[in-house]
Specification:
This protein is an alpha+beta fold. It has a domain at 2-68 and 92-175 and 266-343: FAD/NAD(P)-binding domain (3-Layer(bba) Sandwich). It is built from twelve helices and 20 strands. Strands 6-5-14-15-16-13-17-20 form an eight-stranded mixed beta sheet. A six-stranded mixed beta sheet has the order 8-2-1-12-19-18. The protein has a three-stranded antiparallel beta sheet with strand order 3-7-4. The chain is globular. The relative contact order is 0.17. The chain binds 8-demethyl-8-dimethylamino-flavin-adenine-dinucleotide. 8-demethyl-8-dimethylamino-flavin-adenine-dinucleotide (RFL) binds at residues 4-10, 27-30, 35, 40-43, 98, 121-122, 155-157, 160-161, 184, 263, 282-283, 290, 293-297, 299. 8-demethyl-8-dimethylamino-flavin-adenine-dinucleotide binds at residues 4-10, 27-30, 35, 40-43, 98, 121-122, 155-157, 160-161, 184, 263, 282-283, 290, 293-297, 299.
């Protein structure tokens, strides 16, 4: 078995295959240091923790992760908090930085004797429509090579070799550009709220998310096409305080911005998630805008479904799980996409001609008001927000 990519999808899959005694190798384009320090997600759903627990992969997140169950909305009409951990299915998030999860998964995999080749870029997946697919690779020193296996798992993200190797027409590509961009910031400062903060403002959305007691993630909506370095640190803090209404609700803990990047909110889904002997999981299968914090959670879920199906096929000769892999995952993917799209419309009003724009603003206000006042709406929100 060849697994492309050592992100959450590839590493969960690698660990589970190893647990079942299935021979596999992970090919990773980046260095180990890069993989272990790439900061992205932080909010892990309860189901993700259950999956990791089932396979003994959750020790680090239980030790160092923080349980989280509240979010606060701030708008011109005031602020309100939702204790989503006490609504819906009464489930909590675990806040644990993705790079720490990846480090735990990698350490566990390598300690158990798992094979991984860093700085080995998959160039193409060949012969995927046969029972002997191959992966061509280029190593850091320029050497090229080829790996053969019964199956290939494409866990190498949206720009990886798995997607690029799909022949035209082999899968359908559903896409949506939401026309919204965020400046994503990691800041060396403790969280300023006990909750996730969502500020809806005429100048654009601002978000606050805890990561660790020393590091906080913030998002600031910006005009599409804005370069990541366009705003000075002072401008960033002024803008965050204004949109988060710090004067009314209390100042933010300021600190040095240690990482910044533009996140264009877009989503896509490939359908089906299989082409012959090649299976797609994680961001390679579907990219979901980070508005609802689902990407890493879907990656872990799909990796478990794929590992079970591969074990059935390779150890017991039962192909049914692999035949249903795509349909099973797509049910979860579309539900998460639907909620993420709902969140985008809750937090941003699309710009447009005057009347249309004010129409969207009023719809958004009404949506937030339903969330503030309707218990059934709150339960629905909680179930989707923390679930996958
Ligand atoms: P990853 O993590 O991108 O890993 C893919 C790996 O493949 C390697 N690779 C290759 N290796 C070999 N050959 C090639 N040709 C290769 N091309 C690529 C890469 O180096 C990499 O190591 O994909 P995976 O495993 O599918 O995991 C997906 C998640 O990383 C992603 O969905 C989440 O980070 C999304 N996301 C969030 N998800 C959540 O569940 N909760 C969150 O709170 C959350 N916050 C976020 C996020 C994503 C963000 N960005 C950067 C878009 C916050 C942000 C800002």
């Amino acid at each position: 078995m060849v697994v492309l990519g050592a992100g959450p999808a590839g590493l969960v899959l690698g660990n589970l295959l190893l647990e079942s005694g299935i021979d596999c190798v992970i090919l990773e384009r980046a260095s180990r240091a890069h993989v272990e320090t790439r900061a992205r997600a932080g909010f892990l759903a309860a189901n993700t923790v259950r999956i990791l627990d089932r396979h003994g992969l959750a020790e680090g997140l239980h030790r160092r992760g923080q349980k989280h169950g509240a979010c606060e909305f701030r708008t011109d009409d005031g602020r309100f908090s939702l204790d989503y951990g006490r609504l819906g299915r009464e489930e909590l998030h675990t806040v644990y930085p993705q790079q720490e999860l990846v480090t735990d998964l990698l350490t566990r995999y390598m300690d158990a004797g798992g094979r991984i080749r860093f700085e080995t870029k998959a160039v193409a997946v060949l012969d995927a429509d046969t029972a002997q697919p191959a992966v061509t690779v280029r190593e850091a020193d320029g050497r090229t090579g080829r790996w053969r296996a019964r199956y290939v798992a494409g866990c190498d993200g949206r720009h990886g070799a798995a997607r690029a190797s799909l022949p035209p027409g082999a899968v359908r590509h559903h896409r949506r550009d939401h026309g919204v961009s965020w400046l994503g910031l990691l800041v060396e400062a403790p969280p300023s709220l006990d909750a996730v903060g969502y500020a809806v403002h005429d100048r654009g959305f601002a978000g606050h998310m805890a990561r660790t007691p020393e590091i906080t993630r913030y998002y600031l909506q910006c005009a599409p096409g804005t370069p990541a370095d366009a705003w000075s640190q002072d401008r960033i803090w002024d803008e965050l305080e204004l949109r988060m209404r710090a004067r009314q609700y209390g100042p933010l803990h300021r600190g040095r911005v240690v990482q910044r990047g533009i996140v264009d909110l877009d989503s896509d889904v490939l359908e089906p998630l299989r082409h012959g002997s090649l299976f797609l999981a994680g961001d390679a299968a579907s990219v979901i805008s980070p508005s609802a914090a689902k990407g890493a959670n879907l990656a872990v879920l799909e990796a478990e479904i794929l590992a079970d199906a591969l074990a059935d096929d390779l150890l017991r000769g039962e192909a049914e799980g692999l035949d249903h892999y795509s349909a099973r995952c797509l049910t979860y993917i579309w539900r998460a996409q639907e909620f993420s799209q709902w969140m985008i419309r809750l937090l941003h009003a699309p710009s447009g001609p005057d009347g249309e724009s004010s129409f969207h603003h009023s719809l958004r206000r009404s949506r937030i008001e339903s969330l503030r006042t309707s218990r059934s709406q709150q339960d629905w929100f909680a179930e989707n927000y923390v679930g996958v």
